[in-house]
Specification:
Layout (H helix, E strand, L loop, with lengths): L4 E2 L2 E2 L7 H4 L20 E8 L6 E12 L14 E8 L8 E9 L26 E9 L6 E8 L16 H4 L2 E3 L3 E9 L6 H4 L29 E10 L19 E17 L4 E14 L4 H5 L5 H6 L9 H5 L2 H9 L5 H5 L5 H9 L21 E4 L31 H9 L55
Antiparallel strand pairs: 1-2, 3-4, 4-11, 5-6, 5-12, 6-7, 7-8, 9-10, 10-11, 12-13, 12-14
Length: about 475
């Protein structure tokens, strides 16, 4: 019998979410179907050893992309009909060993008003907030018959409406940071978009800096424009002890030990059947949950997977990703760069071997011996997961380019909120990382020069949990003027 899960009950979760056991630019609108379902659209996943609490790991999954802060009166919120999950694999088979599942329940206090709030909201429990959301978080451990409910009836913060409705918005963050048993913390709610990228440039036939003037259709030099500036997302963040995620329950200290490495991804699932209830004026879900979105590494589904396969990829678990390996070892973008920029990437154009460097970065992790003193190899099973070596301590002076800049605590060893993953992955696709596995190859000079040209232009990141900045307010936001 298929188990059931509701905000008030959780019964035997084995095979509950199809995303882990059967039937990603980062990942904003990355596939045709999920772009029509933003409340279930997984936008970014982060996993890192917490810099301010290095005995813990922070796992973050963001959803609902491109939120306009002034989008009322029906402001953005998590879906009551979506099962959100953050999953960790620690045995090398790309199957979930530890999962944290989140369900949300929305209340309407005053049934006779259209208002989201009926006055200033002074706290997350203020009765002036007419549409509060509560949630439950449950831990599911592979092999255990019963789940562990870590918290129930937890409040999210309201969205940032403006100085009259949500004055001093930053105060809501600590109020909505819930301390759970075992030294865990959890937060769910709206945050400033932390992912930065020049979407308009990249999707305009691959316009890249600093050599856009060498494009087949050249353009003048220009500064990067952050396509997510002024936008918000909805964040689910949980901080847990490092030992909770390892296969032996010990805190890892040996960087070269396989037990120190975990794989992380996030999912969103919906009931397999949805029926429109005319009396209530809304749809209701029935039957088992089916995964509709997933994300591990940034850019994977968005740039690697072909258009015709994107929706299917979103429905599959990571351990089936070997069928997509051919798109990693011969990425379309690597073939396009020499065509779009004649004469700029001659060495890349002449390279015909399978891209073992990208396979290591995106599908298996980096084995020992490739980067001195480092590895985040999870084994031969090819799967799109963020791979994090839990024995690598937080960097004293972190670098946004992470591992390729000598900062082993950064992407592609996990992912921190400030890591410049677009620049890192563009340089990797352009051939900069090929010498790691094939010393006979010399990267084109342009490979190390590629840059997205943007940085975080939203609220500053926090130095503490949940790390993403204060969301932009509706009243304070001034929409830009569309260009011709």
């Amino acid at each position: 019998m298929m188990p059931t899960w509701s905000p008030g009950s959780f019964v035997r979760p084995v095979a509950l979410w199809a995303g882990t056991e059967g039937p990603a630019m980062s990942s904003h609108r990355e596939a045709p179907e999920i772009s029509k379902d933003p409340v279930a659209d997984n936008t970014d996943v982060y996993a890192f050893v917490s810099p301010d609490r290095p005995d813990t790991v922070t796992l973050i999954a963001n959803f609902i992309p491109f939120q306009s802060p002034q989008g009322g009166p029906n402001f953005y919120e998590f879906g009551d009909d979506v099962l959100y999950g953050i999953h960790v694999s620690n045995r090398g088979d790309a199957r979930a060993d530890v999962s944290y599942l989140f369900r949300f329940r929305t209340r309407i206090r005053n049934q006779n008003t259209f208002l989201y709030n009926t006055g200033p909201i002074g706290s997350i429990g203020d009765p002036n907030w007419n549409r509060p959301q509560l949630y439950s978080v449950t831990k599911v451990t592979r092999g255990d018959d019963e789940p562990q409910v870590l918290g129930a009836g937890l409040l999210t913060p309201p969205v940032n409406i403006g100085p009259r409705s949500t004055p001093d918005y930053a105060r809501f963050t600590p109020q909505a940071t819930h301390h759970l048993s075992g030294g865990r913390r959890v937060f769910a709610g709206q945050r400033a978009e932390g992912f930065f990228v020049d979407l308009g440039s990249i999707f305009d036939l691959g316009t890249l800096r600093p050599f856009q003037h060498l494009h087949l259709i050249p353009s003048a030099a220009a500064v990067g424009v952050n396509g997510t500036q002024g936008l918000n997302v909805h964040t689910i963040a949980i901080q847990v002890p490092r030992r909770e995620l390892t296969r032996d329950g010990q805190t890892p200290t040996d960087v070269l030990s396989p037990k120190s490495v975990i794989g992380v991804w996030a999912t969103a699932s919906r009931h397999k059947s949805r029926i429109f209830d005319a009396k209530k004026g809304r749809t209701s879900g029935h039957g088992p949950f089916q995964q509709v979105s997933r994300l591990g590494n940034p850019l994977f589904n968005e740039v690697i997977v072909p258009m015709a396969s994107k929706d299917r990829w979103n429905s599959l678990p990571p351990y089936t990703d070997s069928e997509f390996a051919k798109y990693v070892t011969k990425p379309e973008l690597a073939g396009l760069l020499p065509v779009l920029y004649p004469g700029v990437f001659p060495n890349l154009a002449a390279y015909t071997k399978p891209r073992a460097d990208l396979a290591a970065i995106l599908l298996t992790g980096i084995p020992s011996g490739v980067v001195p003193g480092f590895q985040n190899f999870t084994g031969p099973v090819q799967a799109d997961m963020l791979r994090l070596n839990l024995a690598v301590p937080p960097a004293t002076t972190p670098h946004p380019l992470g591992l390729v800049a000598g900062d082993a605590a950064g992407f592609p060893n996990g992912r921190r909120v400030f890591d410049d993953v677009v620049t890192v992955e563009l340089r990797a696709v352009a051939g900069l990382t090929i010498p790691l596995v094939d010393p006979s190859f010399t990267p084109d000079g342009a490979a190390s020069a590629i840059k997205d040209g943007t940085s975080n232009t939203n609220a500053p990141y926090l130095a503490h949990f949940p790390y993403l900045g204060t969301p932009a307010g509706g009243y304070q936001t001034k929409p830009g003027i569309p260009a011709a």
